[in-house]
Amino acid sequence: MYKASIVGCLFAGIGILTTSFFQKYDLPKSIERGKEVYATYCMNCHMADGIGTDVFPPVAKADYLKKPVKTLINIILQGQNGEIMVNKKKYDALMPSQPYLEDEQIADVLNYIRNSLGNKIPVAITPAQVKALR
Questions:
Q1: CA–CA separation, 108 vs 30, rounded Å?
Q2: Which residues contact residue 53 at a Cβ distance below 8 angstroms, ignoring those fewer than 6 apart?
Q3: With contact defined as beta carbons under 8 Å apart, do 59 and 46 qualify?
Q4: DSSP of the chain, one letter per residue?
């Protein structure tokens, strides 16, 4: 009887651990939250429709968003300085770092940008990926 209780507890513990570690990230909800983050922190430079300006690059239909996830996260955490190419056009404006944003906010805004404004990159960025780069 005692062995059966231990085995039962062991399987229950494994079930709890695997469901908490391997849950699928809810990309649609992340995108929805990211829209608000974008409106609050990004829209002033990149514009409501994401087309950017002569100074600030577009995030709408932007080939730059195909860069590795680590690169995109680090741009928000550390900022961007120096010349970059977006859609075959050079930009050289300073993007200030925004490390005050929470991990979830950074993941959400990147998921929003990568899945709206004419972009479709459906692989979710998670808060854990952001946290790992802090």
A1: 5
A2: 45, 47
A3: yes
A4: -HHHHHHHHHHHHHHHHHHHHSPPP-HHHHHHHHHHHHHHHTHHHH-TTS---SSSPP-TT-GGGGS-HHHHHHHHHH-B-S-EEETTEEE---B---TTS-HHHHHHHHHHHHTSTT----SPP-HHHHHHH-
Tokens for 55, please give them: 């100074």
Q: How far is the C-alpha of 114 from the C-alpha of 118, rounded, in Å?
A: 8
pLDDT on residue 17 = 42
Reading the block at residue 48, the tokens are: 């409501």
Residue with tokens 């404006």: 93
Q: What is the pLDDT of residues 53-71, one digit of tens each?
A: 999 999 999 999 999 999 9
Count of CA atoms in the C-beta half-sphere (13 A) of 119: 25
CA 23 to centroid of chain Cα atoms? 17
Give the residue among 129, 56, 130 at the shortest CA–CA distance from 98: 130
Q: Six-digit token pair at 122? A: 């459906």
